[in-house]
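Intended use. Records like the one below are meant for learning the mapping from a protein sequence to its folded structure. Do not use them to infer anything beyond what is encoded.
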Amino acid sequence: MNRPGSTQTELQKGAAPSFAPQGSQGILILRDGRPAPMIPSTASVGLIAVIAPGILLERHTFSDLEVSRHLHPTHCLHLQTAGVSRVHWFADGKSGTETMSASSLMLHGQGTWDSMAFTGESSRIVVSLDPASIANMLQDESGRLLFQTPSRWHFLDRQVERLMRNLEAEAENGFQTGRTYAQLIGLSLCEYLMRRYSGAHLSPPTCKGGLPKRRLDRVLEYIAANLSQSLSLTEIAEIAGMSPYHFARLFKTSTGLSPHQFVLAQRIERAKHLLRGGKSSVIDVALQSGFDGQSHFSKMFRKATGLSPIRFRNHLQ
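Structure written out for the chain above:
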């Protein structure tokens, strides 16, 4: 099935990487040398979300689907969440048949040529992972560690399933506290896949005491100045001049909190300050503190303080 030299040639022509902004076609593959949606229009794509540069999530629902021969320019990870389906696959000169049900996983490695025919019902989460982008996010002090893995047509892994479902939940909720938490989950998924299925290991950070003080101060100032905005892990790590993977670990060593936990705690403290002032409405407090809306703000505030925002304000009077 694989034409000599064709994988490298088409990857160099390589069209666009498979991640894409929200509202676009979503995950792309290469078909006849050109970018194309991964699944035919007869399938339902219920969700498209960019988790981080190079990490894109979609949700698919279909039955009795044929996917013609194509090339994967990125790794592509499938988790079946409902239904029972049989998939007949042809890839790189091999073929097989798998029965997939809830919790079944499938991994297509970058450079895989394949075609598939599904019979039966299938609902699934699909995550595209661009190795070059992930190498930048997971970069350690030895340099960019490329994530390479062979295809696996059917396997079970509770950790992968948990992380993919958490990513879907964050995307479904619209990243209400920003993308920091979702990006941490995405990096954890990449790190786990790399360690478990490719045999690669990232070296631990060498700054045992955490972030150098000047970098930490710069990061804390940036978070405080942009707390009302949708902060992402990649954005904050760039301020520190580090890869997101290593920044997250050093930041937790310095503060005792993950970047997501720290940003959330700072938002709650700002909300308390604004509520004490008594001049802003609850929705204004929510937006000025960086929450997506009043409902989500009230839920997170109650979880942190035991009181709703209104009761907290009334309690002060």
